[in-house]
């Protein structure tokens, strides 16, 4: 008897929606193409050969402003079978892992952020691009696809299982999960000018920034991961999740300088809140414990899959990690000298956006 594939509900819904919306969009584009060719049969280079858009399912800067739901649906629309297979694989494996690790509610929030925010920003960028260049191709570009979600999932994996090693081509290539985001961004940035995939390049970077910002500063984690009870931790203050650590060592310094300037601006506008000493201690403890985690449960079967009883063991392990982090957080808060305030270093040399080095200032007159 073949093993039953167990897909969490939200992931299953995204898979069905992706297939349905992609097929529907393809059918509508084909119908539009046939209709225009019948209308302009003698104009092979005229209007009948234009790019066909579906502005009520995908984001088209010149048309989609009256279809606000497209900022969500566009993330589930692929325009060819190759990218559709990649997105379905991303949702199936990545969504299954993240939904089980976070729960359907938190995973849903994450999906909403990494789907809507990149599409909205890309929409605005292409409008500005058209205004500066008067290039109609930018105004009627089709913004859609799961590239932003793919980039976001890699950021989430770096947070959860940074030291897990993925072996490819029968051991010829080994790469740690923490290096995937930079490699993905590099390949998409390279393909933009070479293959003309500027939309994918834009969405890859926007998916990276939006997911990192949400996970770094806003995502709520419960101290006891087996329940939804307080106390809770907001964001991830660990040093290894700072922006500079997503890039190769030679780029740490310039990325740190730029990110520190941006971070100070966000703090000054009260968009981000500096991390406390307790947050930093808890974040580092959780990150250290996550270093031994793996992607075994990602596959859900076969070699290296979880064995019977491992779900309970995983829950106990996560509970122990959370309790250790909470204990260190409370210990740090209890030992903090009266009248002092520990915040993330807002300046200095080598600052990183959301860096976890401490700067304790004594209160004075």
From TrEMBL:
One of its GO terms (cellular component) is membrane. It is a multi-pass membrane protein. It holds the Pfam family DUF1751. SUPFAM superfamilies: Rhomboid-like. Residues 333-365 are annotated as: Disordered. InterPro entries: Rhomboid-like_sf, TMEM115/Pdh1/Rbl19. SMART domains: DUF1751. The chain crosses the membrane at residues 53-74, 81-98, 110-132. It comes from the Eukaryota. GO terms for biological process: retrograde vesicle-mediated transport, Golgi to endoplasmic reticulum. Keywords: Membrane, Transmembrane, Transmembrane helix. It is found in: Membrane. This is Eukaryotic integral membrane protein-domain-containing protein. It comes from Tuber borchii.
